[in-house]
Every structure is written in structure tokens, then in C-alpha cells.
Design a protein that fits this description.
By secondary structure, this protein is of the alpha/beta class. The protein has three domains: 142 residues, Alpha-D-Glucose-1,6-Bisphosphate, Chain A, domain 3, CATH 3.40.120.10; 191 residues, Alpha-D-Glucose-1,6-Bisphosphate, subunit A, domain 3 (Alpha-D-Glucose-1,6-Bisphosphate, Chain A, domain 3), CATH 3.40.120.10; 82 residues, TATA-Binding Protein (2-Layer Sandwich), CATH 3.30.310.50. 37% of the residues lie in helices and 20% in strands. It has 14 helices and 18 strands. The strands form four sheets. It has a six-stranded mixed sheet with strand order 1-5-4-2-3-6, with helices on both faces. It has a four-stranded mixed sheet with strand order 8-7-9-10. α1 packs across α2 and α13 crosses α14. 54% of the residues are buried.
Length: 440
């Protein structure tokens, strides 16, 4: 029996062979195709389970009466670009940064927007209601993945070129960026060093770059370093000295190039630092906060006609470049922006204040975590409840929210000084642990 917990706010994820099996992928393809009612592009990441899952996903789409365009083993951004250019929806097999035993899927509309929570809920309900599928009509068109990659690189490099020679270190984390990133930056005019740039489902570092020390990237000789997650839809920057930039510092670099030519405000998730407001103000923009999740940022960027969107975990969107979030495209934009500046990346990053900030993970099963959040809402009745429980106090704030991708609850704390930070961390860690204990 498939667990309902695999259906998350903006994708589907579970343990292969335990939470999900290949026949489930076929049903998901059938339901998804019935929802979009048109032909679908499919692609996949490098996991050993992904080829099986993609094959059955395609079978389900065929059974629903629609053709499949299989772009194969390419980064998520390449698959999204291919689908966008052909005005087709995308179904991509991946579990992003999670370990090899996980599998999953992400669905996107033809305009690059990820399926909204309501649409994923409809797929969940359709999946559990499905009793019988039509016969397989086997209509899969194999796409030349190398041609798709060439088209993607040609589009980006026609718009983005290095102004001066710079050394870029690319930590691909043995993930999908390994297929494209070095070539992309090389053709854009950069000197490129690859780190962990061979595909492997057992990466040499944590596939989640935000929690890995990134030792190799930090010590590499470079003007800018870039690290990607497993399916290359998230990135983080490091300066020439090996210091990792926060999302707000990276946003400053990007906006320094973007703001002079593009209209529109900034959208950001509620976990982004208070310093983002300083950044936006410097470029005469307002910040519109959204729930955590790249689909919310992309959707808000479309609706609000924003010039830029950022999520604290490393998702970014530049709508004038691409109408979806793609880490490789945005990281290339950031590198080009740096090449147009007359200062080192560390000097650019220093323009953005950094307040005491921390994110802390508390393991909590998928079937309990939302119950705990509901309990916390009762404990803090005056909290903001856009996404989890957000409590603002003098000099800082704390956010407690259930992860939509992993069995955990995250506590995020920020304040304007270390003393207040320590007090907030202790107060809300204690409240969260107590709520978890009482929900057992």
C-alpha cells in the first residue's frame, strides 16, 4: 500500500520499493496525463531506479491516450527548457538531494510553473481512486538528449557571456549538473574547474549543498565557486576565499546586474533573512514574502510580475531569462554579473549585513509532523501562519514548519544580536521538543 505521505506540497517522494514501486509510477503517469490532457515530456536523474520509474511513467501517460517525448538523462533545467520551448508539460523522475534509496517525481506546466499543492492533491486523490487503466498504446518518442543540451546551452550563451576572464569552480556533487555545467560555463567564456563532476547515485559529498562543508570547493583556486544539488535546481555561491554566501548576498550580486534593466519587485520565501529587505531597498524594490517551496516563488513571480525570486535553500528565478527556476542558468547569470564588476566577490558580499541566523532540523515522521505544527499553532495563537508557525519578537523571529520534502520539522531563527539569537533558539527548540513529545 502506497503511503499518502509521498504526496507532498510540490512533488512526490518516497523510498523506492517500500513507499513506491514501478507500477505506482505507471498509475501516476496515467493520472497526471489525464489532468493535463496533452502530450508530456519526461526526463530523469541518475538514480538506478529512475530508468525503471520513467519507463512506467511513460507507459501510464500512453495508457491515458497521450504521447511521450523522452528527453532522457538530463538536468532538470534542460528538461524544463525543452518542454517550455515546445509548450508541453513535464514529468521528471527525481528525489532531488535525498539519498539513493529515494525516488520521486516533479510535475511542471508548459509555462514552467510547478504543479501547485492543490494540483498535486488532485493527483493523489486520482491515484487512490484509480481502479483500472486503459490498454497501453505505446507512443514514446525518444529525444536526442545531446541535442536538447546543445539547444539549452546555445540559448543561455547567446544571452550571457563573461565580460572578462574569470576562474569558476563548479561542484556538481556527482549530480545532474555534471552533464552540462562545465560545458555551459566554458562556452560562456569562463575558465572552469570541475569538482565531483562524474555522475553517481552515491555522491562524494552530501547532495544537499547547504549542509555539506564543501571542503573541495572552498579550497579551490577561483574567482567564484558554485555548488549544486542532485537534480541541479538549487545552487549556492562561494567567494574567492572559500566563504559560502547566503541567499541574500547572492541576490545582491544578481540584482546588481538585473535591477538596472528590469522592472518589478522581489519575491522571497519567509525563511529568507531580514537582510534581504536591505538588499531590495538598495535597488528600490519591495519584497513579497511567500511560503517555503520553489513552486510558490515561481508562481508568485508570475502573478506579481516580479523581476526576481529567491528561496533561502538556493532556488532562484529570473523571469526575463527563463520563466522557471533553474540553478545552472541563474548561477551563470551570477558569474556574468561578477565579471562585470570591478571588485572581488567577497567585497560584493560584504555589502549585505549578516545577522545571527540558524536552521535546525528535528526528525519527525511524515505522519506526525503536521500534527505537531497544529499543536504549535495553538501554543502560539498570535503567530503568523502563512507556512507553519512564525513568531516575531523584539529584535528577531522564529519559524517552525514541517518540511515538505523530508520527515522533519525545521526551526529557523534570526535576530539582530547573538544574545537574542541564543534566547530565541532555546525558547523555540524547547517548545518544539515538548510539542513533539506530547504528540507521541
Amino acid at each position: 500500500m502506497v503511503s499518502r505521505s509521498i504526496f507532498r506540497s510540490y512533488d512526490i517522494r518516497g523510498i523506492f520499493g517500500a513507499d513506491m514501486a514501478t507500477e505506482d509510477a505507471e498509475k501516476l503517469g496515467y493520472v497526471m496525463a489525464g489532468q493535463v490532457k496533452c502530450d508530456v515530456v519526461v526526463g530523469m536523474d541518475m538514480r538506478s531506479s529512475s530508468a525503471q520509474m520513467k519507463k512506467m511513467l511513460a507507459s501510464g501517460i500512453n495508457r491515458a491516450g497521450f504521447a511521450v517525448h523522452d528527453v532522457g538523462l538530463v538536468p532538470l533545467g534542460v528538461a524544463m527548457f525543452y518542454a517550455w520551448k515546445r509548450a508541453m508539460p513535464l514529468a521528471y523522475v527525481t528525489a532531488s538531494h535525498l539519498p539513493r534509496e529515494w525516488t520521486g517525481m516533479k510535475f511542471f506546466h508548459a509555462d514552467g510553473r510547478g504543479f501547485a499543492e492543490k494540483e498535486n492533491d488532485e493527483i493523489r486523490d486520482g491515484f487512490f481512486a484509480l481502479n483500472r487503466m486503459a490498454d497501453d498504446k505505446s507512443n514514446v518518442n525518444a529525444v536526442d538528449s545531446s541535442a536538447a543540451i546543445r539547444e539549452y546551452i546555445a540559448y543561455l550563451t547567446s544571452r550571457l557571456k563573461a565580460k572578462k576572464k574569470m576562474h569558476v569552480a563548479l561542484d556538481c556533487g556527482n549530480g545532474m549538473a555534471s552533464v552540462v555545467a562545465k560545458r555551459l560555463f566554458g562556452e560562456a567564456g569562463f575558465d572552469v574547474q570541475g569538482i565531483y563532476d562524474v555522475l553517481s547515485e552515491t555522491p562524494s559529498r552530501n547532495s544537499e549543498p547547504n549542509i555539506d562543508p564543501l571542503a573541495e570547493l572552498r579550497k579551490a583556486k577561483k574567482d567564484v565557486g558554485i555548488a549544486y544539488d542532485g537534480d541541479a535546481d538549487r545552487m549556492i555561491l562561494a567567494d574567492e576565499a572559500g566563504n559560502v554566501l547566503g541567499a541574500e548576498q547572492s541576490s545582491y550580486l544578481i540584482l546588481s546586474k538585473l535591477a538596472p534593466t528590469e522592472k518589478g519587485d522581489v519575491v522571497a520565501n519567509i525563511e529568507c533573512s531580514m537582510s534581504l529587505d536591505n538588499v531590495a531597498q538598495e535597488f528600490s524594490r519591495s519584497v513579497h514574502r511567500q511560503p517555503v517551496g520553489h513552486t510558490f516563488i515561481v508562481d508568485a513571480a508570475h502573478k506579481l510580475k516580479a523581476c526576481f525570486g529567491v528561496e533561502s535553500a538556493g532556488h532562484y528565478i529570473i523571469p526575463s531569462l527563463l520563466p522557471f527556476d533553474d540553478a545552472m542558468a541563474v548561477s551563470l547569470y551570477a558569474a556574468v554579473a561578477l565579471s562585470e564588476r570591478n571588485e572581488a566577490l567577497s567585497a560584493t558580499a560584504a555589502r549585505v549585513p549578516r545577522y545571527p541566523f540558524g536552521r535546525f532540523a528535528f526528525d519527525c515522521s511524515d505522519d506526525r509532523k503536521f500534527t505537531v505544527i497544529e499543536k504549535l499553532k495553538r501554543i502560539f495563537p498570535n503567530a503568523e501562519k502563512m507556512d507553519g508557525v512564525l513568531v516575531r519578537e523584539a529584535g528577531g523571529w522564529a519559524l517552525m514548519r514541517a518540511s515538505n520534502t523530508s520527515p522533519m520539522i525545521r526551526l529557523t531563527v534570526e535576530s539582530r544580536n547573538e544574545k537574542t539569537f541564543a534566547a530565541l533558539k532555546e525558547k523555540f527548540s524547547t517548545a518544539l521538543r515538548k510539542a513533539m513529545e506530547e504528540s507521541d
